[in-house]
Amino acid sequence: MPTLSPFSRLASPVDTATYGEYRITRRADDPRPLYRFTGRVGENSRAGFTPRVGRYHVYAGWFCPWSHRVTITRSLAGLDDVVSVSYVDNARDGRGWAFRERYGPDPVNGFTLLRQVYEATEEGFDGHVSVPTLWDRATASVVSNDFRTIGIDLATEFRRHATPVVETYPEEHRAEIEDLDAWLGPVVNRGVPAAGRPGPAGARARTALLDAFAALDERLAIRRYLVGSAPTEADVRLWVTLVRYDAGPNAHRTINPGLSAYPHLWAYARDLYTLPAFRNTTDFDSFTAPGVDVPDWHAPADRPTP
Ligand SMILES: N[C@@H](CCC(=O)N[C@@H](CS)C(=O)NCC(=O)O)C(=O)O
User: What residue stretches are annotated with the GST C-terminal domain (predicted)?
Assistant: First the structure.
């Protein structure tokens, strides 16, 4: 009988009859945060997570906006050959995220389920398993599953090992990037799903979202990027929401006629899509609702110079 290399092992197909639907299991009285791993990579990392070529791996999902932010930042930071990445399957059953044929096996540990990555870190791990997850080969453990700080560390801590295409978290713009996050996080980046729902809460979320789109359209009429003269984390965080908007949450135009209703915002989104870091990390099939035509992301974008 042929023996399979551990690195060609794949999970069996999604099977909800056997494994049930995926559910977040968490006791109501559990005081620990849902996303429990918050390690930081840096030369002065208290846990010893020093930035090194080939040491870290990102477990991501093509479908997942939080992963997408990290994979874009990784590319903009020039880390394509410094920090590796692999992708879990888009679908799951009660076993959670898994490695299947569509995107290949786990190239680091040869696990079939992402859960095993967490169990290898903490015996009997019973918490939340999510992408993105940053894995450390040196200690064979999860560093973090917090997209925001993974992105910031990739953007800032690997300068000795890579030449960034662009600095996405420059010191002089950090306050403005985080101010924008405080505004756009709740109403846009985390607000879109609510805006597609019926009822008064959905209507409120829709108004807040479309007001934010209108304000962004005005802001982007006279500037190429949200902050400063080059793409930053603020653009990365917003863009992954925009690229999914008419493909998923607004696929059936339940929120508005489409992103193109805001011409500057729409041109800004297409302009970013011309950059390899944005284009090569985007897989429309992984987040487009069945049978939906996505708008033309290749239409030229006439943008103000920065
Ligand atoms: N808050 C998380 C967001 C990550 C997240 O929600 N990831 C989703 C996929 S897009 C996930 O894996 N969720 C696990 C689950 O649904 O149980 C972060 O900061 O990184």
Answer: 170-292
Ligand 1 contact via 155 beta carbon (within 6 Å): no
For 141-191, the pLDDT digits (tens) are 999 999 999 999 999 999 999 999 999 999 999 999 999 999 999 999 999
Residue 112 to residues 7, 109, 287: CA-CA distances in angstroms? 9, 9, 22
pLDDT tens per residue, range 248-279: 999 999 999 999 999 999 999 999 999 999 99
Instruction: Let me know if 102 is exposed, middle or buried by CB neighbors in 10 A (0-12, 13-18, 19+).
Output: middle
Are residue 33 and residue 144 in the same domain, yes or no? yes
CATH of residue 29's domain is 3.40.30.10
CB of 70 shorter than 6 A to ligand 1:
no
Q: Which two tokens stand for residue 265?
A: 């915002």
206 and 184 within one domain: yes
66 Cα to the center of ligand 1, angstroms: 7
**Residue position matching structure tokens 């090569």:** 280
Q: Determine the atom of ligand 1 nearest the C-alpha atom of 128.
A: 17
Q: Please report the atom of ligand 1 found closest to the CA of residue 67.
A: 10
247-256 pLDDT, tens digit each: 999 999 999 9
Domain that holds residue 120: 6-161
State if residue 66 touches ligand 1 by the CB under 6 angstroms criterion. Answer: yes
Of the three residues 161, 190, 224, the one that is the final residue of a domain is 161
What average pLDDT does the segment 111-134 reach? 94
**Pocket of ligand 1 contains residue 24 by CB under 6 Å:** yes
What's the gap in Å between 299 CA and the centre of ligand 1?
32
Half-sphere CA count of 206, side-chain side, radius 13 A: 16
Q: What's the structural domain count of the chain?
A: 2
Residues 152 and 252 in one domain: no
